[in-house]
Amino acid sequence: MNRPLVGTLATAVLGAATLVGTVGTAHAAPQPGAHHPKQHKTKAVDFAGSVALSNCSGSVIRMPGSQENDPALVMSNGHCLESGMPGAGEVIVDQPSSRSFTLLDKSAGRLGTIKAKKIAYATMTDTDVSIYETGSTYAQIAQKYGIKPLELATEHPAKGAAISVVSGYWKKIYSCNIDGFVPTLKEGDWTWKDSVRYTPQCKTIGGTSGSPVVDTTTGKVAAINNTGNEDGEECTVNNPCEVDENGKVTVRKGINYAQETYGIPKCFGTGNKLDLSAEGCALPKPAATRR
């Protein structure tokens, strides 16, 4: 995983390999615009709406149906949780949290802090996501900081789409394209489905875990950055492997990945409340509620 840099399971040394955070890869300067398909107009991507966590990156997000007075949501990776990484098959819902998030302006300047009330949802099964409910509404954040949330797309991302990975932790934007999709991505004990594979230009590093992956054509969040293969190992921690429909395993050293987010809005209803029983919601459920 793009390892977290601090926190319960993170290492004290920046370069050390741990599973808690974004994958460690070389620091490569982003190449804005270099890979944008010419036939599409692109939207300028900046840091507005992104946040820095103690060990990872994240963003203030809204669902298509979210209202101004709904509690604002913050999205990051499941492996960035302050309590440590969820186990394979574990799903966390409605867990109290007082975690703080540093809110950034469009130029990555520090605006202030917003605070969580609870972890609405988190898992590392099928996907790698954490969604916090904060104690601030979108209207309050807009009034105090002039910041609007990033909206989650509701359509499956497209191969070849130009994307920007916005890291609030590093205050850095990585630009590349979606190279393709991986039916099954395995790393250590964890398995993720239909993952996004970046083209090589997005060399995300530790601390970029949880960064929103923004489609530069729509300006909406298409995925959440979470991992990459550091050492060329097969299916080990920090070395995810691809598994196709026929079970063939492929290792791509230095390539990084994200988890799609287009299905998440179907699991949140009125008032930004989680509803895992809603029609079309495919997020994994806690063991006690599975049928």
Question: Spatial order of the strands in the main sheet?
Answer: 1-2-3-7-6-5
Helix/strand-derived category reads mainly beta
- Report the average pLDDT across residues: 89
Shape field: globular
- CATH-derived topology of the domain at 50-151 and 267-275: Thrombin, subunit H
Which value, in Å, is the CA radius of gyration? Answer: 17 Å
The N- to C-terminal Cα distance equals 30 Å
Order of helices and strands: EEEEEEEHEEEEEEEEE
Total strand segments: 16
The major β-sheet equals: 6 strands, antiparallel, barrel
What is the name of the CATH class of the domain at 50-151 and 267-275? Mainly Beta
Strand content: 35-45%
Helix fraction, binned, reads: under 10%
Extract low-pLDDT stretches.
7-39
Tell me which CATH architecture of the domain at 50-151 and 267-275 applies here. Answer: Beta Barrel
Helix tally?
1
Could you describe the 3D structure shown?
With 291 residues, this protein is mostly beta strands. The protein has a domain of 111 residues: Thrombin, subunit H (Beta Barrel), CATH 2.40.10. The protein is built from one helix and 16 strands. The two termini are 30 Å apart.
Name a few traits of the molecule.
single chain; 291 residues; mainly beta; Thrombin, subunit H; 1 helix
